[in-house]
Structures are given as structure tokens and as C-alpha cells.
Design goal:
The complex is a heterodimer of chains A (364) and B (262). Chain A is mainly α. Chain A has a domain at 29-272. Helices cover 72% and strands 2% of the residues of chain A. Chain A has 17 helices and 4 strands. Chain A has helices at 14-31, 33-36, 40-66, 73-91, 95-120, 125-145, 147-150, 188-212, 214-224, 226-231, 236-262, 267-270, 273-286, 291-318, 325-328, 334-348, 352-359; strands at 156-157, 180-181, 184-185, 264-265. In chain A, the strands form 2 sheets. Chain A has a two-stranded antiparallel sheet. The model of chain A is unreliable at 1-8 (pLDDT under 50). Chain B is built from 10 helices and 10 strands. Chain B has helices at residues 44-52, 74-79, 97-108, 123-135, 151-164, 184-196, 209-215, 233-238, 240-248, 255-261; strands at residues 6-15, 18-28, 33-37, 59-64, 67-68, 82-84, 169-173, 201-205, 218-223, 226-231. In chain B, the strands form 2 sheets. Chain B has a 6-stranded mixed sheet with strand order 6-7-8-3-9-10, sandwiched between helices. In chain B, strand 7, helix 6 (184-196) and strand 8 form a beta-alpha-beta unit. Classes of the chains: A mainly alpha (364), B alpha/beta (262). Chain A binds chain B through residues 5, 7, 9-11, 209-210, 212-218, 220-221, 224-225, 227-236, 239, 364, and chain B through 52-54, 73-76, 78-79, 84, 86, 90-96, 99, 102-104, 106-108, 111-119, 122, 125, 139-140, 142-143, 148, 161, 165.
């Protein structure tokens, strides 16, 4: 069956539909994660996925939509995380501390992003990337040197509001025991997870709104043809600075959320370049320039980081009688296999999973 | 006579020792279509770049009415009504035709900063963009990426972008360059229609002499960056200046030009 392409509305390819269904599935799985996968590790993984979806999506607004390459995204993530951590430690566990920490993190992020942006978004992309790299390194050194404030390499451990304590009983039955639904304790841990889920969901929706509104098209236009965008009346530097600040704020809020979830903030969880590399990998694997790509990339990479070892361990055991197989699949070699998987993914999905899938079914 | 809408005063740009545009003083009036001619390398496109802001003048001024544009960025000049189409197709290749046009519409209507309303709900914006789509007869390719269009359609889209900006000053840089004979009239009709609106000032760089004859109210001749002649079409074309510029002093000029002038 053939039909003329519709003039009124763009066609939805089956590939694009698949991507959206996948994302919906991820959203649903994450929503019910504490009930579907009832162990402490799974809920850690689910929370990390939520936070990284937001972090990666906010980075994609920069790199995928606007074409700005920055290596300072973890720096903004760290501002939010350390803001909340320092406030919670000094003021004690309370929502006022969280609010203050989050706001201070956001303000610092905006100021630093605006300063970097206005000073250097006029220069060529490569110089801008270098400047962000330098800024991120400075902040990392500062965080480890100012150990009275930041806890140095050890980081900071602190308490979050009582409602997020594992021992906190959200629902109690007649005997004073915590209520279970489908075998899951309705306790503070669950509350903390849903706090993470809800706030990440909200942030993701805000970003979806941004890229779907007129400014989203302007950002793409700047990526496509900066000079022409300027010629039809858009102040490119202003838009770039705005989007840099916007994504910095979102990253900072994601940092605050993660700090509340972990009850610990240190260089490894909030500032290290490993996180920056993870973000880059997630964006590339998921697909640049599409919010859905961020979801897919974050899910895949976090899952691989947590479960590839286990998977290989069981595979090695199952193939114990096959010569060489146990050695090749030994769990210690998981990074090697992760690398191979990345190469295959990039090779087979040059535009990322979401980008390449969305093109499937297009009649061209 | 009406007040000039666009004035260039001693407009000059030097690249090192080379003077690309040399003290060009010229005034353009609303309702007037001026064609700028001159051999390759005469400085026509550079002159355009100085007016629309892609290049900053070494000397001299660009004025729109009483407003001094000389130090403004291209985006601010665009907001003040300077509209510029480019000689080499200069679009947003991965965005659809409709998105390309909508970008121009929303820039003019100041909606570029809206960041919470989904595009499809801004029906005014969409309808406006579709209007220009219809005017330039690009409806059938509305949802294709600009890069997928034929060269002729890309040229039309280039003109559509300019029209969607609704500027006071229209600057076309060889709008029919590389277009097939059956496509060129479309674009020329659009320009002719703009001329009917007596409030617009139109500047056109063009080599095809039949186009020049059909559309021009006035011709200015640039040569080696300097203003060589300025006057009504017949007068300028009958003078020896154009002939000399194309044939005599510029041996590198293609034979195409000589046929067109002759």
C-alpha cells in the first residue's frame, strides 16, 4: 500500500514511534522499579538512572541541540551536590537546608556559566571546550584543597530529612509495624526514591518543553548555521549564554537530587572526570539532538556499569567446560567487553540509538 | 522625492592593503529597486556584507534613516529592518522548510525567547509561516529538510526566508544564480510583487541583463570597489562605462557577462 506523503503534517516513522515507546517503557519501569526489583542494589541503580537521564538530557541541550561542546558539565553537577551537602551538614537535616543548598548551587552555576559564556562563547568551539575543561579542573582542585568546607578527597557524609531515612515508617499498621505493599516496605527509602523520580521527571519535562518551543528551533538553527541565525535577527551569543546557563542550572539541580539520595557527596560521586566521560558516552550512544536519546543512553550505560560484571560471571560459570571461554568472560574483564560493546554500538548506530532508530521507516 | 531609507556614507573596507569597497556613498529610497552591477570581484557582495553587518566598515557609515547602523551586529540590523538573502545558499540544512521559514517569522515577532509554549500551540506563528510557504509555492516540500530540496527550491526558500523577515530593506544577492530557466521567473515574480509595495527599498545584485531591464529603477555600477556610475537603467546601460567595466578593464570577466551586456 502506498500513499502520497501528507503535506499537512510530518510523517511519524515507525522508528520514531519505537523510540518513544521505549522511553515510555523506561519511564514506567522506573516508576514501579521498587516493586518490580526488590533489592537494595536495584533501587540504587534506578535512582542513578533517573539522575543521569536529567544530567545527560541537560548536556544534550548544549551539545546536541545548540552544538556547544563543554567539558564542565560535572562541575555544575558538583555545585548542586556540594551546595546541598554543605548546607545539610552545617544546618542539619531539613528542607530549609536543601532549599538553600540547591539555590546556592544554582546561583553559583548561573554566575560561573554566564561568566564563561559571555567571555568565551564568541571564540571558536575548540577554545570554548578548552576553557570549560580548565574551569572544571580548577573547581576539582579547589574541592580537594578546601577540605574544611568540602571534606577534601573524603567528601561529606550528612543526614537528610527524617522522611528519607530507611527506618522511617511512612505507613504503619495497627501493631505499629511498617506497612508492606506487594512485599515492599513503605518506608523512608521508598519516599526518597519517589522524591528522586518525581523531581527528575519534572526536570525532564521542563527540558522537553524548552526544546519543543520556539527557542528550541532557534538553538537548532544556531547549530546548523550560526551566521544565518544572526542574519535573520537572533543574537547568537545571547542565546548561547542562555542555554549554557540553563543547562548548568538543570545539572546543578540534578546534583542536589543525587546528593540527597546518596547522603554522601565527594569528588568521585559529584566532580570526577569519569562522570563527564560517562555523560559523553551516554549522549553519543543514546543519540545527540534528541531528548529520548538521553534516556536510552543513560539507561544502557548505567545498567552495563552495574550488571555487566554479574552477567559475565554467570556466563563464565555456565561455559566452564568450554575451553578458553571462562577466561575470556572472566568478570574482571568487564571493561574490555564494555569497550567492545561501545565500539559496536557506535559503528551500528552512527547517530546514536535514538537518532538511528528514528530514521528507520523514513521514505528516503 | 521621498527621504532615503538607506544611506551609505564613504563606506570603505580594507583587507590589509586591498581596498574591497572604496568610499561608496549612495542613498536608496523606498519604492525604488536598485540593481548593483559590476564584474566579479567588484565588491558587490562585500558592499552587501557591510550594509547587513557581516563585515564591519573600516571607514564610513551605514545609516537607516536617521539610525546609525555602522557598529551594530547583524542581528540588531535585522531587527531594524535590514533583510538580506545570500548568494550562496545559506539555510538551516537539517531543519524542515517550514521550520526555516518559521525561524524568520519568530525572529521578527520577537518570539525567539519563548521557551515554555510548544511550537504547535503557537498557531499564529505557524499560520504566518505557512503563508510565506504558499507565496513562494513551497507547500509540497514543507516537511522536507532544506538540504533535501533541489537547488531551485533552495533558492526559493532563501527568498522565502527574506520575505518572512518582512524587512524595510530587501537585499537580494543574485537570487537567480544557478537556477534553471523555468524556476527563475518564480523568484523574479516575487521580487516584482515586492516592488508594487511602494514602501520597500530593494537592492539587487544581478548579472542577467534581461532581469536588470525588467526590474531596475536605477542601476549603480561598482568596479574595483568604487562607485563608477549611478543612474536610470537606460542611461547607464547605454553609456560606455558598463561595457568598459565588463569587457575592457577586466579580462578575467567571463564571456557570459559580455553576451548579457551586449
Amino acid at each position: 500500500m502506498t500513499h502520497a506523503p501528507s503535506l499537512a503534517s510530518p510523517k511519524q516513522t515507525w522508528g520514531a514511534l519505537t523510540v518513544k515507546l521505549l522511553v515510555l517503557l523506561v519511564a514506567a519501569l522506573l516508576l514501579f522499579a521498587p516493586f518490580l526489583f526488590q533489592d537494595t542494589r536495584s533501587i540504587e541503580v534506578a535512582a542513578r538512572i533517573c539522575v543521569f537521564i536529567v544530567l545527560v538530557a541537560s548536556y544534550d541541550v548544549l551539545i546536541g541541540y545548540t552544538g556547544i561542546v563543554s567539558f564542565a558539565h560535572t562541575m555544575f553537577f558538583g555545585f548542586g551536590a556540594y551546595g546541598a551537602a554543605i548546607a545539610l551538614r552545617t544546618m542539619g537535616p531539613g528542607w530549609d537546608a536543601i532549599a538553600l543548598g540547591a539555590s546556592v548551587g544554582c546561583v553559583i552555576s548561573i554566575v560561573v556559566a554566564a561568566a564563561i559564556g559571555l567571555l568565551s562563547l564568541r571564540v571558536k568551539a575548540i577554545f570554548f571546550a578548552m576553557i570549560t575543561l580548565a574551569a572544571a579542573s580548577v573547581v576539582m582542585v579547589l574541592a580537594s584543597q578546601l577540605s574544611q568546607i568540602t571534606g577534601g578527597e573524603d567528601g561529606i557524609t550528612y543526614k537528610t530529612p527524617a522522611v528519607f531515612k530507611t527506618a522511617y515508617k511512612l505507613l504503619v499498621d495497627d501493631h505499629g509495624k511498617v506497612v508492606r505493599w506487594f512485599g515492599v516496605k513503605i518506608n523512608g527509602k521508598l519516599a526518597a526514591y519517589y522524591f528522586v523520580y518525581a523531581s527528575c521527571f519534572a526536570l525532564f519535562l521542563v527540558m522537553l518543553r524548552l526544546v519543543g518551543s520556539p527557542i528550541g528551533t532557534v538553538l537548532k538553527a544556531i547549530r546548523e548555521n550560526e551566521a544565518r541565525a544572526e542574519a535573520i535577527g537572533y543574537r547568537v551569543v545571547a542565546y548561547r549564554t542562555f542555554v549554557f546557563c540553563f543547562s548548568a542550572v538543570v545539572a546543578s539541580l540534578a546534583g542536589t537530587i543525587y546528593a540527597i539520595w546518596l547522603k554522601y557527596t565527594g569528588p568521585k560521586t559529584a566532580l570526577s572526570f569519569t562522570i563527564m566521560i560517562d555523560i559523553l558516552l551516554m549522549v553519543v550512544i543514546g543519540g545527540m539532538g534528541t531528548m529520548w536519546g538521553a534516556v536510552i543512553g543513560a539507561v544502557l550505560l548505567v545498567l552495563a556499569q552495574y550488571y555487566l560484571r554479574d552477567l559475565m560471571g554467570s556466563a563464565a560459570e555456565a561455559l566452564v567446560n568450554v575451553p578458553l571461554a571462562p577466561q575470556v568472560l572472566a568478570p574482571d574483564r568487564w571493561l574490555f567487553w564494555l569497550g567492545i560493546i561501545f565500539i559496536l554500538l557506535v559503528y551500528n548506530f552512527p547517530k546514536g540509538i535514538a537518532g538511528t532508530l528514528a530514521d528507520k521507516g523514513a521514505s528516503r | 522625492m521621498t527621504e532615503p531609507s538607506l544611506i551609505t556614507q564613504d563606506l570603505t573596507i580594507r583587507f590589509g592593503g586591498h581596498v574591497a569597497v572604496d568610499a561608496v556613498s549612495c542613498a536608496f529610497r523606498p519604492g525604488e529597486l536598485t540593481v548593483i552591477v559590476g564584474p566579479n570581484g567588484a565588491g558587490k557582495t562585500t558592499y552587501f556584507n557591510l550594509i547587513s553587518g557581516q563585515l564591519r566598515a573600516t571607514q564610513g557609515k551605514v545609516m537607516k534613516g536617521a539610525l546609525d547602523l555602522t557598529q551594530m551586529a547583524p542581528s540588531r540590523r535585522a531587527q531594524h529592518g535590514i533583510g538580506r538573502a545570500f548568494q550562496l545558499t545559506n539555510l538551516f540544512p537539517k531543519l524542515t522548510v517550514l521550520e526555516n521559514i518559521r525561524l524568520a517569522v519568530q525572529a521578527r515577532s520577537g518570539q525567539g525567547w519563548r521557551f515554555l509554549t510548544p511550537v504547535h500551540r503557537l498557531t499564529g506563528l505557524q499560520a504566518d509561516a505557512e503563508g510565506y510557504l504558499a507565496k513562494t509555492r513551497l507547500e509540497s516540500v514543507a516537511h522536507l529538510p532544506a538540504a533535501a530540496l533541489s537547488h531551485g527550491d533552495q533558492r526559493k526558500l532563501e527568498v522565502a526566508l527574506l520575505m518572512a523577515m518582512e524587512p524595510d530593506i530587501y537585499m537580494f544577492d543574485e537570487p537567480t544564480a544557478g537556477m534553471s530557466l523555468d524556476h527563475a521567473p518564480d523568484v523574479l515574480e516575487l521580487i516584482a510583487a515586492l516592488k508594487q509595495d511602494r514602501s520597500k527599498t530593494i537592492l539587487l545584485v544581478e548579472h542577467k541583463m534581461d532581469v536588470v531591464r525588467a526590474l531596475a529603477d536605477r542601476i549603480i555600477v561598482l568596479h574595483n570597489g568604487a562607485l563608477l556610475a549611478d543612474g536610470p537603467p537606460q542611461e547607464v546601460m547605454d553609456s560606455d562605462i558598463v561595457r568598459d567595466v565588463y569587457l575592457g578593464k577586466s579580462p578575467a570577466a567571463p564571456s557570459r557577462a559580455s553576451q548579457e551586456v551586449a
